[in-house]
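Journal club prep — side note

Before the paper discussion, L.F. wants everyone to see what a predicted structure for a comparable chain looks like in token form. Sequence:
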Amino acid sequence: MRIDVTDPPRVFRVGLGADFYLADCARVHLAPDEQVTFTTEAGAEYDLARKDFGFYATPSLNGRLIGFGLRAVLIRNRQDRYYILLVERGREASFEQYLEVEQLHIVCWMDTTEALQALEARMTQGESVDSTS
């Protein structure tokens, strides 16, 4: 693993409904089969693991991620771009405010076995989506 710190951080505007700013602080270069863990002050954790084919973007959605205090949710913005967000348990009210300000739509929560099985059932009942062609 190699970390390239951006000092000073690159600050840029994001969001469509309000002025939000992000600070790009570092680049983390992972070799295959390396992992980094991100933490919050409240103790929530998020693992990102690199494989030779790409990344495991999250720990198991209905297992370790829940145990780490995070809930996965698929959202759509008003430009029809989709994102998977991880909401810290206990911060749902702040998340709801963010959804309203940014005019985001929850497609589905992906934090319980039941929700994920329902999503899988909908996908297998309908047309299969294959993005490899």
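L.F.'s comment for the group: Residues 113-125 form the longest helix (13 residues). Keep this in mind when we get to the figures.
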